[in-house]
Design goal:
heterodimer; A: about 350 residues; TIM Barrel; eight-stranded parallel β-barrel; two-stranded antiparallel sheet; B: about 375 residues; alpha/beta; 13 helices; about 40% helix
Chain lengths: ~350, ~375
């Protein structure tokens, strides 16, 4: 699989600081105080909101050379499918990796909406199905499924969606979904099934990915740890007669020099309200946990110079990662920085080593 | 209140006129478009059907329509997707989104709707449909029986409204349960979408009277429609609410009546005999009361298109020309406007009009017919026709 770099689209807020306060750049909300004093006229009125900023980030990712965007599922933010559609015509070639939970409704309806996405974007739509929060959070979302049903429901959701997208007539009767004489005909037939990205670290999650995922997304961890997981998952998928690609959800804090990167990491750490020195944020060389990651949802961030961060991404690629889901705050400015300073280095080093290996 | 007039987005493909049975414009059905020339689609230039739909949406808003209904059928693109795609490139077009509540978790639907309101500046509307039933429901993956589906629809709207202002909202229904739910700020500041409600059964009317802003019906014979509207208004009055009514109607308007009927004659001449046989027969099994009513209003012997003229300027064969409703208005610009005003007098507060091809006809109807409609000037009382 070719290497793809996907930038995160933060649907719940984005800002310059490492604190956990949700800032929605561009938001016209009546709840937020106008940023100018009474002495300065403000031409914006209520004509903008955070979706305008999300559009800017998507365009930035497109222009800066990313292959896709991950449209975050955040119950406190804007809804990911609407955001995906809203951005689709403003981007030219980005994969729209849209995150959601299998509790959103009918798998047939989701597949039918996906077929329209594929028709209108020439196949750029992709699914990241997440297990969601704990039981109390799920009940807030109208979802009363017990913990033990979450992964089996994702499996059925993917099975039914693939079924109606690729077969007609299609029939299914499971624990969560039922279809009779289903399947899409006419204009909705023969559209590509959205690639399915799944994640999770439990044996059940591994088994689910082995059966249904196209890409298993790993949480950020030192590269040697990930090698073991990748080997385990590859064996499981092979047991199903399938192959699986691997993604990595990791943040990146890259600066011109190592010392600038460390200085900014420490500043973000202070802004996020974590007592400095409470525990060592450096979990492995160049890999930090605990700043800004509450917002971006990553387990850890690479911290270092452009060259170091690039080299560490290459190491992950050599270990088998082919889908990098990257983020940094603020997402617009950092999309350009990473796209201009880091990705070209990573891409050329990977190409060089592949040609040497060949 | 003044009258709101909407247009329709042809999700079921677009022929070049009512005479044609070839809905391939804009690359609606790639692979079946060998009659389509490059530039009108074909995929090679990167355009897709959404590019054509965007043209129609902009034509409708420029021509003075409120917005458009975006129909959802098993073979059509989905209105949530179309609306979100077109949000940024339209200014005033309101997206009327039909969907069946059983297909979406109501808390997700609320957040999805609020985000679409934010994306469009409050231009989303619901057309709540509850499903015609029969084998079709299980095609959609829905196994709930007919009358229970209306209970579900009512509960669905209870929850969407309940969480809309931020909550915390809890609910114990037969179909939906939520605990401490609510939309986050600033999504909770959006206006709730107007609800257009479709459904002709008693169970439908009960659900509509609780939640709907507009009760939406296909065109039916004027007396039947007047009775239907009066019935839903009485039921809603009894609950201490007010409901408005809307009519979905195809129209064919030309400078002269002769030209309009000539279009129908030529369209009818191109109808596939098998389709005509189905039209005259019993039709597909359905639990839809609305579809059964439409069937009951048709003549049983059809030798000519004129046999389908059931009232002055009303032709009951539109579903032969393209999928959907049976009855439509045919006539000169003045006659079509007069018939619309007749419908206003019998109680209609809004219209969803359509004509093929939707792009050119949006301009024609907007320029030639809408200026002739008297409607109901603001401040004048709603006339409740009697008898």
């Amino acid at each position: 699989m070719a290497i793809e770099f996907i930038w995160q689209l933060p649907t719940g807020g984005d800002g310059r600081h490492g604190d956990a306060t949700q800032t929605r750049r561009g938001e016209r909300s009546g709840l937020t105080r106008p940023p100018f004093t009474e002495g300065v006229s403000d031409p914006r009125g209520e004509r903008f909101n955070f979706l305008d900023h999300l559009h800017q980030i998507a365009r930035a990712a497109d222009l800066a050379g990313f292959d896709g965007i991950q449209i975050q599922h955040d119950p406190q933010g804007d809804e990911s499918w609407i955001v995906a559609g809203y951005l689709a015509r403003g981007s030219r070639r980005l994969k729209l990796l849209t995150e959601f939970e299998a509790s959103r409704g009918s798998a047939v309806y989701a597949a039918k909406n996906a077929a329209s996405f594929q028709r209108f974007t020439q196949g750029r739509f992709a699914w990241q199905i997440s297990p969601g929060g704990d039981a109390a959070l799920r009940r807030q979302q109208g979802d009363h499924a017990p913990d033990s049903d979450i992964l089996p429901r994702i499996g059925e959701f993917v099975e039914v969606a693939k079924g109606v997208l690729t077969q007609s007539p299609y029939r299914f009767k499971g624990r969560f979904f039922e279809v009779l004489d289903g399947g899409f005909n006419g204009p909705l037939s023969n559209n590509p099934v959205p690639p399915v990205y799944l994640s999770g670290g439990s044996p059940e999650a591994y088994a689910l990915s082995a059966q249904w995922a196209d890409v298993h997304v790993l949480d950020a961890a030192p590269v040697d740890e990930l090698k073991e997981t990748i080997a385990k998952l590859e064996a499981l998928a092979a047991g199903q007669g399938r192959s699986l690609a691997f993604g990595l959800r990791i943040d990146v804090l890259a600066r011109e020099t190592e010392s600038e990167a460390v200085r900014d990491a420490q500043r973000f750490l202070a802004q996020s309200g974590r007592a400095v020195g409470s525990s060592d944020p450096v979990v492995a060389p160049g890999l930090w946990a605990g700043f800004a990651t509450e917002r971006t949802g990553a387990a850890a961030s690479l911290v270092g110079s452009y060259g170091t961060v690039a080299e560490r991404l290459v190491k992950y690629a050599e270990a088998g990662v082919s889908s990098f889901i990257l983020a940094a705050i603020p997402h617009l400015e950092e999309a350009y920085r990473i796209g201009e300073q880091v990705l070209p280095v990573v891409r050329s080093r990977i190409a060089t080593r592949l040609s040497k290996a060949a | 209140m003044t009258i709101d007039i909407f247009w329709r987005i042809p999700t079921h493909g677009e022929p070049s006129s009512h005479r044609s049975r070839k809905p391939w414009r804009g690359d609606w059905f790639p692979g079946n478009d060998n009659l389509t020339k490059p530039g009108l689609g074909g995929g090679e230039d990167g355009s897709t059907y959404i590019d054509y739909l965007a043209e129609i949406a902009r034509a409708a808003e420029i021509s003075g329509f409120q917005g458009g209904l975006i129909p959802s059928f098993p073979s059509t693109d989905e209105p949530w997707v179309i609306s979100s795609f077109l949000a940024r490139e339209t200014k005033t077009f309101r997206f009327m989104i039909p969907f069946q509540p059983g297909f979406l978790n109501p808390v997700v639907a609320a957040r999805q709707t609020a985000s679409l309101q934010r994306a469009t500046g409050g231009r989303a509307l619901y057309n709540i449909i509850t499903g015609g039933g029969g084998p079709q429901q299980l095609w959609w993956g829905d196994s709930v029986p007919h009358d229970d589906r209306y209970t579900r629809t009512t509960e669905f709207l209870d929850v969407v409204r309940g969480v809309w202002r931020g909550g915390p909202f809890s609910y114990q229904g037969k179909f939906y349960q939520v605990e401490d739910a609510g939309l986050p700020d600033p999504l909770s500041e959006e206006d709730f979408p107007e609800i257009y409600f479709s459904g002709s059964s008693d169970a439908a009317l009960a659900s509509a009277s609780k939640h709907a802003d507009y009760y939406l019906s296909w065109l039916e014979p004027f007396d039947a429609l007047r009775d239907k509207f009066n019935r839903v208004k009485e039921r809603t009055d009894a609950l201490g609410r007010k409901i408005k009514t809307a009519v979905r109607v195809d129209i064919l308007a030309r400078p002269t009546e002769e030209e309009a009927w000539e279009e129908i004659r030529r369209g009818f001449a191109n109808v596939d005999p098998a389709a005509l046989a189905r039209f005259q027969g019993a039709g597909e099994r359905t639990e839809s009361v609305g579809a059964q009513r439409q069937r009951g209003f048709r003549p049983t012997t059809i030798n000519s298109y004129t046999d389908l003229i059931t009232e002055p300027n009303i032709w009951s064969g539109f579903s032969l020309l393209r999928g959907g409703q049976t009855q439509g208005i045919v006539g000169s610009y003045e006659q079509v406007a007069e018939r619309l005003d007749d419908l206003v007098r019998l109680g209609a507060d809004a219209f969803i009009l359509a004509s093929t091809p939707h792009l050119e006809e949006a301009y024609r109807v907007g320029e030639e017919v809408l200026p002739l409609v008297r409607g109901r000037p603001s401040g004048s009382a709603t006339l409740r026709a009697v008898g």
